[in-house]
Prior knowledge:
Layout (H helix, E strand, L loop, with lengths): L5 H13 L2 H8 L6 H10 L1 H18 L3 H12 L10 H15 L12 H15 L2
Helix pairs in contact: 1-2, 1-4, 2-3, 5-6
Amino acid sequence: MAKLNPKQERFCQEYVVDLNAAQAAIRAGYxxxxxxxxxxxxxxxxxxxxxxxxxxxxxxxxxxxxxxxVIKELAKGAFAELDVSEMKFSDxxxxxxxxxxxxxxxxxxxxxxxNKGDVAQRLLGAFRGLNK
Length: 132
């Protein structure tokens, strides 16, 4: 792996905080005006992508948070009984949305491209259909 310059390394460190490329670019010292395009461009750099993966693996190891554990927790929230839990319907909907995106249930063409209203409507429809 090629050596990253200090700004690129800082971008990587900042990106793993919230996975927001534009904000990570700003916090790393790139121009706020062009942060969105710079952030996206940096993510396509092989060395930067490799460093981000390395940082994420380290976080997973340190926190003991695995994809399996996250999916199990999302499933708990998605299928929790609303009347017995402190969970709001919007929380349940978000869990269902995240699980559906992960599993590719919403849309064969990439669920992440849908707007939130469409996703919510389809999830609500599916949820209502399951409860009949």
